[in-house]
Amino acid sequence: MAVGSAPMQLQLRATIRTKNGLCAPRKWIYHLSEGSTDLRTEGRPDMKTKLFSSACPGGIMLKETGQGYQRFLLYNRSPHPPEKCVEEFQSLTSCLDFKAFLLTPRNQETCELSSN
Description:
The chain is mainly beta and 116 residues long.
């Protein structure tokens, strides 16, 4: 996560593994709104994102809300984040009345973050 190229903008860069097993660079630009904690995703006017503070190194927690869905996501640079990070995430989601928890399997090495 970094400051964007314009005021009131944040940029999130990642390299994610796609369904076919290949690594693909991704970039999201979030727009901040005066007087709101919601971030608006560029190109996705229906989606709102909230970032949550976390003591977990190398990770972020966020909540996405779109048309007909809500989800909490924990992203971490490690394929196996420390147990305390997962517990913190589960505690947050439980407090906000989310009961289902899905942990995606990590069978491959992480993708390297590109420098672009």
